[in-house]
# Entry
Amino acid sequence: MRPVGARGFSMIEMILVITILGIISVVAGAFILPAIKTQDALERRAALVEAAEIAMRRMARDIRISVPNSVRTTSGALGGGANGFAIELIPTADGGRYCSSGTADCDVSGVLSIGSADTVFDVLGCFRNAAFIAASGTNAYRLVVGNTDSNIYTATGASAEIAPVGNVTLSIFPGTGGTPTVCGSQSAVATTYNRHRVTLTAHTFPTASPRQRVFVVEDAAAPVSYVCNFTAGTLTRYVGYRNGAAYSTGVQPTDPGAAPLNTVTATLVTDNISDCSSTSLEANVQTSGVVTIRLVLTSSGETIELLSQVQLDNSQ
# Structure
């Protein structure tokens, strides 16, 4: 018995309280810990899914706006001992339809000649961005008409299908009406509108576009390569190697960060890549107009897999 007037807890009472609290903690932990672990796993999977979706959207955007027939892929063993895939493409900055013989409302002076040198042609409407001339006065853009295959990556194909840098200017034609300097405004001729006129150093486009398409390519932004290296666990975007040896010879680089292209700009798109693959044959891409991409990301024991089919929006 506790002595009269004594205060505090006896040893037995303390042991009982500790024992009861221990039992309660064990029981509570049996219910709480699994929930906490499940929440952590959900958060890790959500982070992986978000990273994979962002990577997919980034690649899909570039693929959709690429020059027709410029997308080419390589899967399996890549350069530098890597495993995965490499996707190369030439993104477009703008585009329109050029005037051809027989096109209504096209002035004969603005018709694009195919197969012979031409210096002037009109587009049906207006380019979205008329800044073809850089601030320094050096043209930073090229024009592409009638690209039919990956020869656009070769030195001869590029010179035949892409207008030379530094020789493209824009003006308004016919430049009449209430607002003659505004492209898209109504001209003085009934039912016609002011359009963009392209002036360039004499250049021969050898192949016509079935849909009269002309594409604008920013020199500094082409070509682009996405290299998925699941050996290193990375997906990297490379840009800015137009003048590199692998580009000029037409060979698709699978390791643009290595010599002689190691001066390119490389951006990590995502990491935690444990496996990846893409459409393996360039002919399949050009025939079907679809690129299939598969990414598998793994982190802390959690694995997610995303599969995406990207439709090429630009057509000839």
